[in-house]
Amino acid sequence: MKKYKNSIVSPQAEIGKDVKIGDYSKISGSVVIEDGVVVGDRCKIGYDDSVDEHRVISENRYHRQFLLKEKKCIIGEGVVIHDGATITNKVVIGENSIIGNNSLIRSNCSVGSGVVIGFSVTVGPFVKIGDGSIILNFSAVGSTSKIGRNVFIAPLVMLSDNRYMLRDYKKIRGPIIEDYVRIGVLSVIISCKIGKWSIIGADSVVTKDVPEKVVHTNAFRRKLIQKEIDEYLESLK
Fold it and tell me: Are 63 and 57 within 8 A, CB to CB?
C-alpha cells in the first residue's frame, strides 16, 4: 500500500483526476475512484466484510439476483464521501451521490446516481438504491432491500429484512420500495412492498403490501389524488 498524504491507498486502486482524500482514510484492494471524488477524513473504502451471512445469502436462489457482477468497489465521478464513512468491497456508487458522516454501506450494494445518504445511515448487504433517492439520518436499510428512483426516506426509518426475527439468513427478504415513494420519520417497514407514489405517514408500522398511489398511516389509508402527484413532480425539477 502507498501513502496518499496522511492516508493509505492500495497500489491496486485506480484513482482518477482531481480526487481529494482526507486524513487517516484507508483505500483497500482494487477500488476504482473516478474523477472529482471527495473522500473525507477517517473513511474506509473497499475493505472485505465477507462473513457467513453473505455466504448463506448468496447461496439462496432468491438472493442470487442481488449479487453484483463487479468484483471491486467503484466510486462514480463527483461522489462526495464525508468523514468517518465506511464503504466495503463490491459496492458500486453512481456519479454525484453523497454519503454522509459515519454511514456504512456493506458489500454487494448498488447505489444509483444523485443519491443522498445522510449521516449514520446503515445499508445492509445486497441492497439496490435507485437514482435520485434520499435516505436521511440514522435510518437503517436491511439486506436485500430494493429502493426505487426518487424515493424519500425520512430520518430514523427502519426497513427490516427479518419479519419473524429468525437467525435463518435464507429467509431474509428486505422490503421493496418502488419509485417516488415517501416514508415519514420513525416508520418501520417489514419485508413488504410499497407501491409507486405511495406515502407512508410518520411513525407507521407496515407489515403488509401497500398498493400504488395510497396515503397510508397507522390510523387510515386513502387514495392519492393526481394534484398531489403533480405537485411532487414539480418539486423534483
Answer: yes
Kindly state the DSSP code that residue 29 receives in the 8-state scheme.
Answer: S
CA distance 126 to 106: 8
Per DSSP, the three-state class of 33 is: strand
Look at residue 202 and give its three-state secondary structure.
coil
Q: How far is CA 189 from CA 109, 169, 184, in A?
A: 19, 18, 11
Q: Tell me how many domains the chain contains.
A: 1
Closest CA to 125 of 112, 140, 139, 109: 109
CATH number, domain of 16, equals 2.160.10.10
Would you give the end-to-end CA distance of the chain in angstroms? 44
- Domain range for 36 is 2-235
Q: Give the pTM.
A: 0.87
Q: What is the pLDDT of residues 126-174, one digit of tens each?
A: 899 999 999 999 999 998 999 999 999 999 999 998 877 766 666 788 9
Q: Specify the residue for cell string 407489515.
A: 207
**DSSP assignments along 92-153, one per residue:** EE-TT-EE-TT-EE-SSEEE-TT-EE-TT-EE-SS-EE-TT-EE-TT-EE-TT-EE-TT-EE
